[in-house]
Amino acid sequence: MFRSAIAWSCASLWLIGLFSTPAMAQKKNPDGAKVLLLSGGQRQHHGYRDQAFYLSAALEDTGRYQVTQTEDAALLETPGLAQKYDLIIGLSDRRDPEFKMTKGQQQALFNYVRDGGGYISIHGADNGAADWEPEWKPMLGAIFSHFGLPDGKTKKGEFTVRIVDTSSPVTKGMYDFKLKDELYYHLQIEPDVKPLAVVNFEGTDWPVAWTRNYGQGRVFHTVFGHRDFGPGKDDPLRDPNFGRLVLQGIDWVAEGRKK
Predict the structure, then answer these.
(1) Residue pair 213/221 in contact by the 8 Å Cβ criterion
(2) Which of 57, 97, 181, 185 could form a disulfide with 206 if both were Cys (CB 3.0 to 4.6 A apart)?
(3) pLDDT tens readout for residues 18-50
(4) Is 66 helix (H, G, I), strand (E, B) or coil?
């Protein structure tokens, strides 16, 4: 009994340490692009941690990436961020008070991308809080928001993802596919967004994936990627078609960083 208590205490301390500091790359890919994967937020609503570990492994298994995970956005204000990381991936809805980015952290991210860094935004990472800096919208191309108009809407179900731009490296070799996920629609969107893929819902084609150039940097965003909280839940990133779309989006952003 005493030994079990000690073991549990040690395990608890290990877990606390694991998630309060950046989790270093699991695989050494010395020539790979250095990725900072920013997770966290809405723990009882999305399975962000499980998704973060799956995505990290999938990227590192390509041999082209080395991933560092963190839930602490303070890392964005680290001196020399651009020298340490080639790409940043935003994976989570950060409206929760404990995960909300400060204005300084937001500006650090904008500066990083404008100066040539790459940014990938997946699903909840576009969820705008009322105190978000306005620059998010032109950088991402669109935000999901319950303030201002239009008011963002969601719908869970199985959707047909239609590839509408086959000329992009992000959609190379891809065809229309079905996906079980959560659709964001009625986004507050920039007029120059050119979708790579759309979903027709209620008679309207809603953009679900696109790319952006922001300053000298590249951005890829998809509104899909909802992973419910709890064991055994489906993760759309594990779908071979959607997983390929995301990976090719990340590759496109990384290529821009190389240039």
Answers:
(1) no
(2) 185
(3) 333 445 556 777 788 999 999 886 666 676 788
(4) strand
Rounded Cα distance, 40 and 58, in Å: 19
Q: Which helix (H) or strand (E) holds 206?
A: strand 204-214
CB count within 10 Å of CB 91 equals 27
182-204: pLDDT as tens digits: 999 999 999 999 999 999 999 99
Query: Strands 153-163 and 177-185: what pairing?
Result: antiparallel
What pTM was estimated for this model as a whole? 0.87
Nearest to 208 by CA among 255, 246, 151: 246
Tens of pLDDT, residue by residue over 44-69, are 667 678 888 899 999 999 999 999 99
Neighbours of 82 (CB within 10 A): 15
> Is 78 strand, coil or helix?
coil
Phi, psi angles (nearest 5°) of residue 198: -135, 165
> Distance (Å, rounded) from C-alpha 109 to C-alpha 121?
12
The pair of structure tokens assigned to 158 is 């199985």
In this structure, are strands 142-143 and 118-122 parallel, antiparallel, or unpaired? unpaired
pLDDT in the model for residue 23: 53
SS3 167: coil
Q: pLDDT tens digits, residue range 120-158?
A: 999 999 998 888 999 999 999 999 999 989 999 999 999
Distances in whole angstroms, Cα of residue 89 to Cα of each of 1, 114, 175, 203, 247: 43, 15, 25, 32, 12
| Distance separating alpha carbons of residues 102 and 100, to the nearest angstrom | 6
63 C-beta neighbours (distance < 10 Å), count? 11
Residue 88 has what DSSP assignment? E
